[in-house]
Design a protein that fits this description.
alpha+beta; 7 helices
Length: 166
């Protein structure tokens, strides 16, 4: 590739999404629905190179179609695929406890307190779930519903997270 084409591709890298969409229409002759900057840049750069140097051979295109039609394609690699063998062994040896524990929750044994309409609501965090008034609950939201009579985000009710502003 000559320097003029390399410079044009480098200029594409600095364009905004609307400018890339205009460039896409100019290069491909049709609109794009994508607003993904990296995708647009790569598609346009590829097409410019194809126009300059030619595209894939007919054999390569046929093989790509054959691979794409294969029904057994994986959409995700196997567990530990991107790690070194030592790391893969570590990944496999970690016992899986089932559900992922929310990082916003305090450690088991912690007591959560909240004052609501003049009374204290005290909840103990368990390894799996919560205890309120000697009863087991699966979520803080279930406890907030019992306490208030209305649906609440349990983390929000007990002050463990803040309301998103949007």
């Amino acid at each position: 590739m000559d320097m003029a084409h390399i410079q044009r591709i480098e200029e594409l890298r600095r364009l905004s999404v609307p400018a890339l969409k205009r460039e896409y229409k100019e290069v491909f002759g049709q609109e794009t629905r994508s607003s993904h900057k990296q995708y647009l840049f790569r598609r346009i750069a590829w097409q410019l190179q194809v126009q300059l140097e030619g595209g894939l051979s007919e054999r390569a295109v046929d093989r790509a179609i054959q691979i794409a039609d294969d029904a057994d394609l994986r959409s995700v690699g196997p567990k530990g695929f991107w790690s070194w063998p030592e790391q893969a062994q570590k990944i496999q040896s970690i016992p899986h406890s089932g559900a992922h524990r929310d990082g916003r929750l305090p450690k088991p044994g912690t007591m959560l307190t909240r004052r609501h309409k003049g009374r204290d609501v005290v909840v103990q965090v368990l390894e799996e779930g919560f205890e309120y008034q000697s009863r087991h609950y699966g979520s803080l939201s279930a406890i907030a519903l019992v306490v208030t009579g209305t649906r609440w985000n349990g983390l929000l009710f007990f002050g463990l997270t803040e309301r998103r502003r949007g």
